[in-house]
Amino acid sequence: MFHNMRFLPIRTSSSLGFISHLRCSILDIPKSLVYDNHRKQGSLKRFILLLGGVGLLYSILLINIIGFGIMWYDKKMAQAGKYRVPESRIFLIAIVGGAFGVLLGMEIFRHKTKDLKFKVLIPVIIILQVILYRFFYLQ
C-alpha cells in the first residue's frame, strides 16, 4: 500500500492552527518505517497497528478495572443502604468494554447475581465483544 510513496506525511489538526502538517521524522518514527524502498510492503501500517494494539490493550484493562470497581462500590452502597449506581451506568461500562470486569465483580462480590438482566446480558455482551474484536481487529 505504501510502497510507491517515498515519504509519507502525517496530517494532524491542532486547536492552535499552526501545526497542520507534520512529517514522520519530527515524530521520531524510525526511517525504516517511513522510507519503504527496500523493506516489506506495509511496515508503517504494521507499526501503527502495533501501537494501536498496545493502546487498545491498556484501554480494555482500564475499563475492566473500572467495571470491577463499580460492582464493588455498588455492593458496599447496597449494604449501607445508600445511593446506588444506576443499572444503566453499569451496562454502559460493560458495553464500552468493561463487561469482563463487571462479570468478575458480580461473581467475587456476589452482587447482582440473581438479577436475570445481569446474568444473561453481561455474558452476551462479552461474547459480542469477542466476536467484534476478532472481526475488526484481527483481520
3D structure, described in words:
Helix content is 62%, strand content 4%. The chain is mostly helical and 139 residues long. The protein has two domains: 1-41, no CATH class; 45-136, no CATH class. The chain has a two-stranded antiparallel sheet. Helix 3 (87-109) packs across helix 4 (116-136). The chain is elongated and about 55 Å long.
Features:
2 domains, mainly alpha, 62% helix, 2 strands, 4 helices, 139 residues, disordered N terminus, two-stranded antiparallel ribbon, elongated
Helix/strand layout:
Blueprint: E1 9-11, E2 21-23, H1 31-34, H2 43-80, H3 87-109, H4 116-136
Helix pairs in contact: 2-3, 3-4
Shape: elongated
**For the residues shown, what is the average pLDDT?**
75
Q: What is the count of distinct domains?
A: 2
Radius of gyration: 22 Å
Structural class: mainly alpha
Counting DSSP E segments of at least 2 residues, the number of strands comes to: 2
**Largest beta sheet: what is the strand line-up?**
1-2
- How many H/I helical runs? 4
- Kindly estimate the percentage of residues that lie in beta strands according to DSSP: under 5%
User: Tell me about the biggest sheet?
Assistant: 2 strands, antiparallel
What is the element string, with H for helices and E for strands?
A: EEHHHH
Pick out the low-confidence regions: 1-29, 31-38
Task: Determine the fraction of residues in helical runs and give it as a percent range.
Answer: 55-70%
Distance between the termini: 16 Å
